[in-house]
Amino acid sequence: MKTTRLIIVAVGGQGNLLSSRVLGEAAVAANIHIGMSEIHGMAQRGGVVESALVFGDAASTIISDGEADVLLGFEPSETLRALKKCHSRSCVVTNMQPLPPFTVSIGKGNYPDLNQVTELIKQKTDRLYALNATELARQAGNMLSVNIVLLGALTATNILPLTKEQMQDAIRKTVKKAFVDINLKAFEFGEQAITDRG
C-alpha cells in the first residue's frame, strides 16, 4: 500500500494523544502497518503537542518538513505553524475555532487573522477542509470531543486507508465507556461536515 504520512498538531488538553491512539487501534485492527511518534510540548500548560503517524512501510516515523501528506490541526494558528511539514499536494483538515495563547490574552501578542490563515493554507497545499469542530463538539454533547469531530472529518476525506466502521470500532475500544456514545456522535458530526460539502 502507498505510504501516507500524517501530522497532528494541537494545544495541550485538546486530545491529540487520544486521537493518535484511536488511529493506531483502527490501523492495527485493519492489519495496516503503522508507526507513531509524539512530541510532548508543555501540554499541561497549553503548549503544543505534535504527533506523527506513518501508515504503510517507512524507514522512520519522523516526518520532516515537506513530507506530510495530511495535516490535522486542532487549532488554526497551530495548523498554520505546522504548515511547513506539508507539500503542495498535502491535504489539511483543521478546526477554525481559535484557542488564543496566554500572551494574546494579556495583550502581549496578536492572533493571526483567520481569513489570512485560510488563504495561506490554500496557497501552500492542495486541499483544505476547515470546520468549526468546537461548535460541533458542543452540539454532540461534550466540548472535549473536538478531537473526535476532527477524526470524523479526516475519515470522510478518504485520504487514510481506514474506513468509517474501523474508526468507530476503534473509538469504542479506546474511549472510556461513559463517553463512547457522545464521541460516536461527535465523529458523525465531523464526518457529516465534510460529506455535506459534496
Describe the structure using short key phrases.
single chain; 198 residues; alpha/beta; Pyruvate-ferredoxin Oxidoreductase, domain 3; 41% helix
Written overview of the protein:
This protein has helices spanning 16-29, 76-81, 102-105, 114-124, 133-140, 146-156, 164-174, 180-195, and strands spanning 4-11, 34-40, 48-55, 68-73, 86-95, 127-131. The chain is α/β, with parallel strands linked by helices and 198 residues long. The chain has a single domain, classed as Pyruvate-ferredoxin oxidoreductase, PFOR, domain III (Pyruvate-ferredoxin Oxidoreductase, domain 3), CATH 3.40.920.10. The protein has a six-stranded mixed β-sheet, with helices on both faces. The longest helix has 16 residues, at 180-195. The radius of gyration is 16 Å and the shape is globular. The two termini are 26 Å apart. The model has no long low-confidence stretch (mean pLDDT 91).
Please identify the top-level CATH class. Answer: Alpha Beta
Q: Count up the helices.
A: 8
The Cα radius of gyration reads 16 Å
Q: Ranges with pLDDT <50 over ≥5 residues?
A: none
Mean pLDDT over the residues: 91
**First-to-last CA distance:** 26 Å
Estimate the global geometry from the Cα principal axes.
Answer: globular
Strand and helix layout:
Layout: E1 4-11, H1 16-29, E2 34-40, E3 48-55, E4 68-73, H2 76-81, E5 86-95, H3 102-105, H4 114-124, E6 127-131, H5 133-140, H6 146-156, H7 164-174, H8 180-195
Helix pairs in contact: 1-7, 5-6, 5-8, 6-8
